[in-house]
Amino acid sequence: MDDAGSDQALTTRAQIDQAIVAACRGPRGALARLRRSALLRWRHRPPVAEELLIAPPDLRTQDASFVDEIEAGTFGLAGCVALLHGRSPFAIAAPNADWERALHGFGWLRHLDAARSLQVETFARELVREWIAGSRRRYPPAWRLDVVGRRVISWLSHAALLLDGERKRPYAAFMRSLDEQVSHVQASWQSAPDGYPRLLALIALVKADLCIAGRDRQLDYSVPLLAAELERQILPDGGHLSRNAATLIELMLDLLPLRQCFGARSIKPEPALSAAIARMAPMLRTLLLGDGLPARFNGVGFTERDALATTLAYDDSPPMAPVGAPPSGYLRMARGATVIVMDAGAPPDLELAGSACAGSLAFEMSTGGDLLFVNAGRPSAPDAHARAMARSTASHNTLCLNDQSSSTLVRNAKLEQAIGAAPICHPHVVRCSVHEGEAGISVDAAHDGYLPRFNLIHTRALHLDAGGIRLDGVDTLSPVKGVLRLAWDLPFAIHFHLHPEAEAEIGQTPDGAEVALDTGELWRMSVTGAALSIEDGTYFADVSGPRAAQSIVLRGVCGGTARVAWRLERVRQGRPLDASTRRRLRSEKRQTEADVL
């Protein structure tokens, strides 16, 4: 995010939002501490668990080669590899916070389960016993509620790996520790950060109540809590309050096994659970582009295909039809082989905006199975330093005014510590309308992100023709009403970031550019009202890490009003490529990029 935006004084609304957040968190934290006290603990925990009745399935992708990496002296988590040097992963310095949370969450047990052997069982159990022995120190990162929730779910899901044939004393120690963690979640879930961390804590609580003998009666307490939180956080169209599609995938991977647990115990699932899953699946499909992966908005980076395929295999609902002002703020335009996903929503509330991006009115576009225009995407842990830049307006396919983002960073130390990043605010008002007909589909949208600083509204109109071969766009900067003359002209840039597999060059005239794909498909862009250039950029959402990419940028100045009209048209259709040819071409391209670097 640009510094100019972050230095802005907070609006009255933003100050009120912060005050509400602080006011709500204070009582929640105090109440949680009271509930954890020894005096009241008896109210929030049943007798110590002695037996596991069922083990939930783990739907996340397993990687048996994880064991080979450990044998080679490395421990790779959250996109970062730590060197063990013959020591336990709990005995070394964590390379970053993401790696540390993943370590204490024990989600990596699924990889050990995939390569299960007597040696692997022994290794897994030794690590769990080591963690239990050191847990009395209450190391803060290990006792974050979302980390505890993930650890409880992981221990339950891989109980066979950890407990089959185990001796009585280690088994009892495991169950005591599990009971302590579940009681911690039950007493403290309200103090978890809003959004996915709070849902994860409640999902872990309900799973524990279903899986551990003697906790059945706790379901009358935990299930309604989860149901209410799902109703609050999952919007009517299936989007999540955070507007992060990656959160939907994670939730589906947690909720689908939970639903199976109800069936295994012959207990009817809470209707809110099934309803949430039924809403989320169509929304995920709405956000998918032609390559089968979700558009890179508001915290979405590299997405595992296997994880996404698993979530969608349980529901075959079609994508949602585009409507004006959808609750989630996303619109899908699809005609022929062309798919466009547009962000037409405002940032979420501050507590949920830690990964939100300043991408109002940005869009991504695919043709067939190839990506054409993409946003920068969320950098993985090793490149976390670039996340602020990737969240900026300039890293999205939309208009950036005066080198400033349409959103502003909210600097608040307590809030940043709670949610892990600086949240954003603005624009407050984003409006959109959709029109469909025989001629194609049109979207008209506008946002007020630049209104407080420059008294200007950004309006974008898009029209995709019936065949999906031509996209017409108009970007406008104008005052809310009347005529405005600024004291000086403000520069603006409209970015069109290309996927690394696409290449652009200036066309036959300076106001045009041609974009070629590996398939031989060719698209031509023309513009009026701005100067066109091709610039270098970076794409962060690739499995291999940051990749060099190109951008078509339309630059101009605004003295009070500005209007830029542009057209993207397919002038040559491509040829189908088999998977092996695609892999070869992409490998050659990556090698060329590496040679250049």
Describe the fold and architecture.
This protein is an alpha+beta fold and 597 residues long. The protein has a domain of 267 residues: Beta-galactosidase, Chain A, domain 5 (Distorted Sandwich), CATH 2.70.98.70. Helices cover 36% and strands 21% of the residues. The strands form five sheets. It has an eight-stranded antiparallel β-sheet, with no helix packed on it. Strand 15 and strand 16 form a beta hairpin. The chain starts with a helix and ends with a helix.
- What CATH calls the topology of the domain at 330-596 is Beta-galactosidase, Chain A, domain 5
> Architecture of the domain at 330-596 in CATH?
Distorted Sandwich
Structural class: alpha+beta
Radius of gyration, taken over Cα atoms and rounded to an integer in Å: 25 Å
Portion of residues within helices: 25-40%
Q: Would you count the extended β strands for me?
A: 20
Provide mean pLDDT, rounded.
90
Q: Detail the poorly predicted runs.
A: 3-10, 19-48
- Terminal residue distance: 26 Å
Estimated share of beta-strand residues: 15-25%
Number of helices: 18
Shape: globular
Layout of strands and helices, then pairs:
Blueprint: H1 3-6, H2 12-36, H3 65-71, E1 74-77, E2 80-83, H4 97-105, H5 109-114, H6 118-134, H7 145-157, H8 159-163, H9 168-188, H10 196-211, H11 219-233, H12 245-264, H13 271-286, H14 305-313, E3 330-335, E4 338-343, E5 363-367, E6 370-373, H15 387-391, E7 399-401, E8 408-409, H16 413-419, E9 424-425, E10 430-437, E11 440-447, H17 451-454, E12 457-465, E13 470-478, E14 490-497, E15 503-506, E16 512-516, E17 522-528, E18 531-539, E19 547-558, E20 562-572, H18 579-596
Antiparallel strand pairs: 1-2, 3-4, 4-5, 5-6, 7-14, 8-9, 10-11, 11-12, 12-13, 13-20, 14-19, 15-16, 16-17, 17-20, 18-19
